[in-house]
Structures are given as C-alpha cells and as structure tokens.
Amino acid sequence: MGNPISFLMLFSLLVIVNGMTIRDVKESQIYIVYLGDKPQHNHECIAESHDDILASAVGSKEEAKKLMVYNYKHSFSGFAAKLTKAQAKKLAEKPGVLRVLPDGRHRVQNTRSWISLGLSNVGLPNNLLHQAHMGDGVIVGIVDSGIWPDSGAFNDEGLGPVPARWKGICKSDGLFNASKHCNRKIIGARWYIKGYLHETGVNVAQFNETPEGTPSPIDIGGHGTHVASTAAGSFVSNVNYYGLDMGMFRGGAPRARLAIYKACWDEPKQLCSSSDILAAMDDAVRDGVDVISVSLGGSYPHLPEVSPNNAIGSFHAVAHGIPVISSGGNGGPITSSIEEVAPWMISVAASTVDRAFPTPITLGNNKTIMGHGLVIGTRVGFTGLVQEDLPKRLNEGELNQAPVPGIEGKVILSFFKDYANEYPRPAVQVADSGGLALIVVRPLDDTDLYAYSDTMQHPTTRIPIVEVDFEAGNEILEYIERSAEATVMIGPSSVLVGKPLTPKIAGFSSRGPNALAPEILKPDIAAPGASILAAVPPGYPANDNGFAFMSGTSMAAPHVSGIVALLRALHPHWSPAAIKSALITTDSHETPIFAEGSPAKIADPFDYGGGIVNPNGAAYPGLVYDMGREDYMNYLCSQAYHTAEIYNATKETPAYDATAEQLICQNRYISLMNLNFPSIVVPALKTSITVKRRVTNVGPSNSEYRATIKHPLGTTVSVKPEVLVFDSNTRTIDFEVTVEAAQTMNTGYMFGSLTWTDGKHSVRSPISVRTSLYSMH
C-alpha cells in the first residue's frame, strides 16, 4: 500500500481538527473511505479492491456495486459510498482503512487587474506574461461550477495543438457538445454529481427538470465561467459594459489551456459535495493538469478548518508536483476567519484594484457631489429625492412588506452605520417598490467606495446604488430638509484608473491568524478580488455582452492561478513550494497597504500574507524557501500531539491513538517554527527563540545576499550568518533567526520582516511576533 503511515497522519489531523468522526447522522449518507497512497498503477485492480473492501462491510459485491459512488484511484486510493452509520463504523475498523469521513458541503465564493499587476500585454516585452509566452502549453484545471463554452473568452485563435501529454477527455452531455464546445482552449470537460444528488435528495429525473437540465459541464450560475476566464481567458477586444469602455479583456495566462471539472451545481440548491470535489481533483491529477484552481468555501464556516476534501485532494496533487490555489474565504474582516489553512495550498486573500467608478450626484440646487457606484446605461434624470431610514425598517421587519410607501419614482437617501453590507436587501425592496435609485451613506473607511461595482446594481431591476461618506450624506440630507420638493440627477458613471487609487485589502477577505496552527502564516498572498470583470453565461444578472462584475476571494484565487500558470511555463521544474515562496517573498509595495474594516487600518501579514502579488518579481525571486512531502509530514507530526491533547480532553472525538503517532513521528523534528516556510510567526514569545530556515539560490550562481531586518515592536531580531554566499557548488544555505523579547509583558501581534538582498533581488519574509508571559500549551 505504499507508505500508509504518512496518509494516516494526514487524515488523523484532518479528522480531529474538524470534529468529523463517525457520529449520529441520517440512516444513510455518503462517506469517503481513505486508503492512503495507491498500491499500484493498475486502476482496474484498485477499483476491484475497493469493491472487495466495501463488500466486506455491506454483505456482498452486488450490494457494494450499488452503494459505490466514486473510486479514487489516480492520485491516491479510496472511494465514496452510501453507507449507514453502522456500516461506516465497520469499515473504519477494517485493516488498511485509514479513515472514514462523512461527505461535506462546500459553496462557491464570489481588464484592469492584470495591468495593475504589471502584466500588460501591450509593450513591456520583458514582463512575465511575454517571457512565459502567455502560458502557452500549460494546462489549468478549474474545479468549480462548469463553464459557458460559447463565451468569446474561450476562443482558441492562435493556439497550437492540444499538448500531447494531455490524458483528459471532453464529455458530451446535455447542452454540452464536445465536438462543438471543446477546442484548443477548452481541452477537457467533466462533471461530478453523485454526491450532490445524495446531499440534496434529488433524483436524476427531478434534476433534469431544473434549469440545469441534463447534467453536463455547462455553467448556468456564472461562477465557474468567471473563474476560468479570469485565470486563462483568451483575448476579447473592445469590451463594452453598459456603455463603459472596459478595453481589452483577457485572463492571466491567455494562451494556457483549460480543463474543466464541474463539481458545483446551482439548481435546485447551490452546493458542492466533498465526494464530487475529491473525484474531480483525482481525475485532474491523472489527466495531467499543471495547476489546480479551487475557489470553494469550506464545509463548516464556523471552524478554522483544514477542509478534508480540499486538503486531501490538494495534498496528493502537490505530492505529484501540481500547485493548488484556493480562495481564502469571504469571512473578513473577522480575525482568524481564514478557511483554507493547509500549508501545501496557496491560500489567497482579496485586494481591490486601481480602478474607480466616480458617479456625479447633482442636486436640484445645482450642487454636484461625487459618489462611488456604477450607473449603467443612461443617467437617472431629475426626479424626486426623499430620505428613508431603511436600516430601521429592516430591523423592524417592515421591508418584508412591499411596497414601501412614498418612494415610487423617486431616489432614496439612507444612512447605514455598520460595516456589514446591509444595503443589498433594502435595495431589493426599494426596487420592488418602484424606487429609481438608492444613495447609500456609510463611513468612507468601512468599505472601498471604489470597488464593489457588482453590488452597485440590483441584479434584476438594475437599480443604481451610489455610495457617499457621512459628510456628503449630511449635505444631501440638509438639502432635502430645506427644500419643499427636493430633486436629484444621478450619473452617468465614468471610469478612473491609475496610481491615485491605492489597492487595499477588501473588507470581505478572510483574515488570519491561523487558528489551527498559529505558527503557519495564512493567508499566503493577496490578489485582486473586488469588482473583477470577467465572462459569464447569458442568463447571469447584470450581464452585458457576456461579461459581468463579481467580488470575492473566489475572484482573487484565479488571478494567482493565472500567475502560477505563467511561472510554470517559465520554470517548469520548480516545485509547488518554490512557486509559493516566490509569490510570498516578492511584494514590492513601498507605501503601506490599508485593510478595510471597522475601522480601516494599515494591513499586516494576517490580512495579506506576503503582500499583494507581484508576478514580475516572482518570476525571478533570487532565493526560494523550498519544501517537499517530508516537510509537510513534519508539519502533520508537529500538529498531531497538540490536537490529540486538545480534542481528547474535550471528549468530542474517540480516543486518539497517540502511541501510533509517536512511532510515526519519533525520528522527525517536530517544531512547527522550524519548518521551512517563507515566513516566521512566533505566537507566544516568552524570552527568546531561534528558528531555522534554508534558502535555495535560483538566480545567478555567484551571488552574495545580505540580511536587512525590520524588528517587530518590542523585540530584537538577529540572523546568523548575516551574509549568504552562493557559487556553482553552493546552491542551498541554512541560517538561523533569533527573536528576543525586549519587554516582559503580554502584547498583541507585532510585525516586521527579514529581507535578503543582493542589490537586485529582495527576498522578504514577514515576521509576526506576540510576546506572552504564559505558555500557549
């Protein structure tokens, strides 16, 4: 069975962290049975062995075949099957069965951005986009809600033959015709629905009557199409969005190929099943993708989790040399809301872009105030203006009763004081009551008033929503109170781009620190995720000419996926960890980055990881912090003792086999802070601590790097040696970093950095330290 010990460790940790042991659940549900590394390359024999194992628990092979949902046999060995609690428990006790987990549920997370990242396709012949030949030959796997293949963003103009190493298929079903819809851009398309049907209780006949129709790779909700086109969409000239000239559209790696794995469904309920996701990832590894992009949320949003499905699938993908990029979650600005914390994944936070939609608000007294929104089409001509306390109506339940009196044919002004996006629901009621537009007054720092153009229109009636700060809002209110009949004209919006607009970390973007393993920094990196324009199906709300705006870390992740595709084209032999290190250590922002919240603040590594992604810097980082499978096993061993202690004490899970783990881990060094991550987090510094790191030179062979340290407040940081000298015989060098407390008191986290520079490259590792008089454990 290969080396089942390592996979036992992986699953033990995942199960304990999520509390996902075999519990009292409904009589029959889907369970994922994990058997570890695949014992051989004969997939038929592996599948046969799965039948035998399942038969031993359910009574016969015939019954086993009826209950089998998926065989996982390409990147690892396991299966998904419909089982009762008793059958699952029986299976868990079988020799060779490492873990049995109940199926889980996931959800999707919801131009200019590439230019803002330095990847213009015009001029700049030395940027990463051109050096990597726009990703030509790289295959990007998208695990999401499918694709709308008729979009112009997936044309194959100028692309060569499908890479000969490709082993995947295009599967014709329903509205998806492989001979028509697959080309030299979309080279693979599969779908996975067995887990979804079981989770929702819908049978195939019922599903066929939904808007989805016969199951196929076709995307009707728009999320998967938006993600795929962001990562690797083709060139589309002269994109016009409701009269606004948006210029040339393309994805991050426009000459890369797309392999689509539809594991998320929109009707009758938006859901992604764990077993379907895992099957998609297993096929993606077998098919030969070079990058996997997964913009999906976790099963249990209240937990700081390693999602078993994403973590298991991504662990095996990374072990096969395939980087996996995941959205970090939309739970911000709440502390420790980051969802995907597995250290082998690249977890992405969302930033804004340097683009705004200033919108004039002209009052009846000829005073014009600039708001921020997106008034598409024609302006709202002079009409009545009234003030309504929509939050109060919302809290008192009045907004459930349509229509709201006195607002038909008028523009509404309303004040919103809280950070949370309260106004979309009132906007719906305003639209349904005949209101023409909504002026939202809210704290300027509470949200990026430049950013969320996808929330600036009611998706059905396209009612404009324009935001202003309290100063402007009070000025408008004063005008209303002094006028016998206040009137207003709104729009049209214009597009403003460039340096005056500084990117920020979006308020919705999930934050660290990592609650599971505080010593591991998460998120890893930030990328544009607010108001991203990309391709959508024709039926998507606010779609115009096949494009629409969306916001979310789901939009940030495919930005990084496109960049990783370019890096794979430029450096095909780099490991996933080397690519991740290059992304984290090369942020080039010289001015502070702000993070939206209540209140807004200067961003820190728990908001953006290493910073906002710098593709051109990542192409030539100079040094990388490399890691492999054994390093991740050290991480799992380090976690095992602590999680066993915590969760056995709570008695929320069955007894943890610490003896077995000690045998596994006895020859491993298990300090999390000594793992070779490109960042340093010290969650409880009492006096001093020394951590070890190793860097690999990927730049000129004869190089000399010197250390520059920015000390976190209240600490002193030193490094030995202070100079790293590389030559043709020395490619890797170990060094030590010592962090000492300069004060004996409890503090919050303070931040600094260690930067290695040779005059050309700057390799920056964020340092996060919290001093504490008490031990964490």
TrEMBL record:
Segment forming the signal sequence: 1-19
Domain Subtilisin-like protease fibronectin type-III span(s) in chain numbering: 674-769
Domain spans labelled Inhibitor I9: 31-105
UniProt keywords, alphabetically: Hydrolase, Protease, Serine protease, Signal
Residues covered by the Peptidase S8/S53 domain: 135-587
Superkingdom classification of source: Eukaryota
InterPro entries in alphabetical order: Peptidase_S8/S53_dom (IPR000209), Peptidase_S8/S53_dom_sf (IPR036852), Peptidase_S8_His-AS (IPR022398), Peptidase_S8_Ser-AS (IPR023828), Peptidase_S8_subtilisin-rel (IPR015500), Peptidases_S8_3 (IPR034197), S8pro/Inhibitor_I9 (IPR010259), S8pro/Inhibitor_I9_sf (IPR037045)
Gene Ontology annotations of biological process type: proteolysis
One Pfam family it belongs to: Peptidase_S8
Active site: D144, H223, S554
GO molecular function: serine-type endopeptidase activity
Protein family per UniProt: Belongs to the peptidase S8 family.
Protein name stated in the entry: Subtilisin-like protease SBT3.3
Organism: Sesamum latifolium
Lineage: Eukaryota, Viridiplantae, Streptophyta, Embryophyta, Tracheophyta
